[in-house]
Amino acid sequence: MEFAELFKTSAKDYEILFNIAIALVAGFIIAYSYYLAKQKKGISKSFIATVFLLPIVVVVVIPLIATDLKKALSLAGIFALVRFRSVPGDAKDIFYIFFTLTVGVAIGLNYYLVAFVLTLLVCLLFILIGRVLKFSEEQLLKITIPEDMNYHDAFDDIFEKYLLKAELFDVKTTNMGTLFVVTYSVNLKDKSQAKQMIDELRTRNGNLNIVLQVDPSLFMQL
Questions:
Q1: Helices within 85-111 (DSSP H only)
Q2: In angstroms, what CA-CA distances link 9 with 12, 107, 109, 113?
Q3: Between the CA of residue 163 and those of 21, 153, 188, what are the distances in Å?
Q4: Which of 118, 124, 167, 207 has its CA 20 to 30 A from that of 73?
Q5: Nearest alpha carbon to residue 144 among 76, 213, 202
């Protein structure tokens, strides 16, 4: 096989390149709408980059698996593996990933009108819902406590005072088992009172480490 034949192009190659350009535009619209909907609160740069670039990858993958059932099943297995090895994230973020994949598939199959109507419609609705309903801003509260401290009801009165919501998220040992790190999913009543809440928690847990993570993307680091 001659070297020049390795780079021989076809109509399908040009079609894929055109779809990449279309996906680039769609990805930008999707990422920017997510940014507007979040109103600069708890925005994850890595998530923005993901929804921006994901349609480009999908439009390249679709032609490669369109006529091969084995490849399609292999790709589905990879997506399943990634999904089940991941910590569940925010429901709207999971929806946005699925939405982005759907747009990429539509473009990859040359359904351009469907792809852009879907993109514009969902993005517009997402922005409007984000402005009107004000998505709840959940945070992670990590409290280090001594091993002999009962964490189940140790902070209930403080939580009731400062939080709209406090759900136990994770419990793990640290420092050779002499300490526990208890993690809660919380929603503050008033963000300006975060310091007062932490000060009260410190008096309760013996002035051990307390972390309030304000970026929802940090849920994925547990």
A1: 91-108
A2: 8, 21, 20, 27
A3: 46, 15, 4
A4: 118
A5: 202
What's the DSSP call for residue 109? T
Strand, coil or helix: what is 107?
helix
Longest dimension (CA), the chain: 77
The Cα–Cα gap between 131 and 129 comes to: 5
Per-residue pLDDT of the chain (222 residues; tens, 9 = 90+): 455 555 566 777 888 899 999 999 999 999 999 888 876 555 677 888 888 988 898 888 888 776 665 655 566 555 544 544 444 456 677 788 889 888 988 998 899 999 999 999 999 998 888 766 655 567 889 999 998 898 888 899 999 999 988 888 889 998 888 899 999 989 888 888 899 999 999 999 999 999 998 654 444 444
Q: Do residues 140 and 183 lie in contact, with contact meaning Cβ atoms separated by under 8 Å? A: yes
**Number of Cβ within a 10 Å radius of residue 150:** 7
Asked whether 136 and 187 are in contact (CB, 8 A), the reply is yes
